[in-house]
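Regression check, zinc ion case 199:
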Amino acid sequence: MDNREYRYQFVAGNLALDFVNTVAFRADPGKKKDHLQHAEDVHRWASQAQLPDWGAINSGRLVGTASLRRIRAIREQLFAVFRAVAADDPIPADTLAQVGDALHDCSAKRCLSIEGAEVRWAWRPGARRTDYLLYPVLTAATDLLTSVSCSLVRQCEDAGCGWLFLDRSNARSRRWCSMADCGNRNKARKHYRREAGLI
Ligand SMILES: [Zn+2]
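Current build output:
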């Protein structure tokens, strides 16, 4: 598929997990595809995610290579942390500390401002578009990590998918990132294997 036509998915139930899910088929080296490869991708994700500052993120020129690298590096840190959470593995402490530091860096660039009669959070001079993008993502990540909902993080059971999501189903039985995608594909595969006498 032409990457320009890619529509980002927001099926995880948490912005940080949706951000991590910008890599498709993480667990399948043959099909793995990073949908935040180019600066344009970052801008499209920001607007499709409707980030609070997406207009500012998308104003002016494209984000630079160093910003893109930083955005992707933090995404991979978040993946490492949440994958461990989903698998009940020990959370990598160094990576968790990096996530906390990254949020701290973004937060340090915010300040309270008065607009008319309202007090609002604003960005200090010197804040960058990377901060505008990462702040809501990292806030969603750390809010989730420190909440009881953290126990609801799951990884899609599809062999290659690797996407993460929150299982908010009543029976806590959500197995797939998306029923329309991995769920149906695996149901069809199981049906075929049963018909073929393989199971
Ligand atoms: Zn999946």
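Comparison notes: The chain is about 45% helix and 10% strand. Residues 156, 158, 161, 163, 176-177, 182 surround zinc ion (CB under 6 Å). No diff flagged against the previous build.
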